[in-house]
Amino acid sequence: MIIRTIISTKRADNFIIAMCNLIQRLTIDSLHIVGDIYDRGPGAHIIMDTLCNYHNFDIQWGNHDILWMGAASGNDSCIANVIRLSMRYGNLSTLEDGYGINLLPLATFAMDTYADDPCTVFTPKMSFADASYNEKTVRLITQMHKAIAIIQFKLEAAIIDRRPEFGMENRKLLHKIDFEKGVLVYEGKEYLLRDTNFPTINPADPYRLTEEEQELMDKIHSSFMNSEKLKKHMRCLFTYGGMYLLCNSNLLYHASVPMNEDGSFRHVKIRDKEYWGRNLLEKSDQLIRTAYFDEERGEDKAYAMDFIWYMWCGPDAPLFDKNKMATFERYFIADKELHKEKKGHYYTLRNQEDICNKILDEFGASGPHSHIINGHVPVKTIKGEQPIKANGKLFVIDGGFSKAYQPETGIAGYTLVYHSHGLQLVQHEPFQSRQKAIEEGLDIKSISFVLELNSQRMMVKDTDKGKELIMQIQDLKKLLVAYRTGLIKEKI
């Protein structure tokens, strides 16, 4: 009778959706996201809308999340990077439809500046685009892509000059271009440039923005700073996110804890003081929040604003930890040797159980059932790489849920499930389309692997939440005793 009434009143769709949401909520007590919601395909704003209304979640910030947080904080280098990546993959909807970012000034500037330039090197990767664009629109995106990339290189150089302690002088490459020969002179060797048209670069002062570029960035900056939806989503990331999380003896973080070759924690100097291990991640967390929330506009704010960009691409940044981000080389140099980004020692050392135990001890997560949960570097399953490392002490659950990474990984990512019986890793196959799912039943196919079984089922009292509840019960008992013995009076 109830079902018939639901159908007859045309509420069946709403009922099905409500039941699905209920099942999801009962099935998933807590959702942990190990970074990089943004720049992993179209619709990041839709994901954030869902998360902002989710009953219980947390996120360990990834370097792409930090990039957007930096853009929302007003860092122009981060803003330029965000736009460049959106152009590179043809994902304009998040910027325009999701956050109301006005890209018209960039389009106008690009059409005027690169009117006769084919900009071939900057053709977007349309196989990952958020929509089907006609040839004219693709041409415009290509021009916009080149325009913002050149601006980005100039803006980043200003930070590098301000902060020599970042050690990123090798990322300033515009002054190493021989404009007459059309080559890049790098470490004593000449590399032919794939694109030699630089109408906005003055060889005598290559990092200075033209008046038009500065005016353009002022307009885009204003658009980012006045997006209410972007503010809402960034505050959600700050409220429910952080550099790392300890949960039930598990340590979750996106990328790395920088280390030296000998397995010791790498000391990173931040404003004349050295930080390493847990303190480094906590200091980074604090500076990221300062960049967004500090309204004093003093030196602390200025440093934090530059540091948030460093977290995106800095060699000792816990969210990156590679010797360089080879953006310029990938665009302009054909020699793939210059494209290589050497990973920090952490990525090799994390395969050793003793190193993982050392990291867990550093964060206070030791014990037989403690693990490190990592993301950042997609697991190349197609080449035989395994997500389980260090004898089961570390799991890398970034397997390429993003479509752009699936050709490299061979799968569509992992989900790590933690329940009363133990740990279970779920490997996903690529989702093709809703149409395929409806017509051919080709939904997301998943394969589950049991990683660890508890000898006894874990009860609520054994979890972090359970311990918190036990403490609350003890406090309530003390309160009750105090009331019954007259130590406190009932309020009327």
UniProtKB/TrEMBL annotation:
Record EC number = 3.1.3.11
Return the Pfam families for the record. FBPase_2
| Gene Ontology molecular function: any one | fructose 1,6-bisphosphate 1-phosphatase activity
Write out the catalysed reaction. beta-D-fructose 1,6-bisphosphate + H2O = beta-D-fructose 6-phosphate + phosphate
Keyword annotations from UniProtKB, A to Z: Carbohydrate metabolism, Hydrolase, Manganese
Broad enzyme group: hydrolase
Superkingdom assignment = Bacteria
Which GO terms are recorded in the biological process aspect for this UniProt protein? gluconeogenesis
Query: Which InterPro entries does this entry report, sorted A to Z?
Result: FBPtase_class3, Metallo-depent_PP-like
Q: Which cofactor does it need?
A: Mn(2+)
In the UniProt record, does the keyword tRNA-binding occur? no
Q: In which pathway does it act?
A: Carbohydrate biosynthesis; gluconeogenesis
Q: What family is this protein classified in?
A: Belongs to the FBPase class 3 family.
Q: What is this protein called?
A: Fructose-1,6-bisphosphatase class 3
- Biological source species: Bacteroides pyogenes F0041
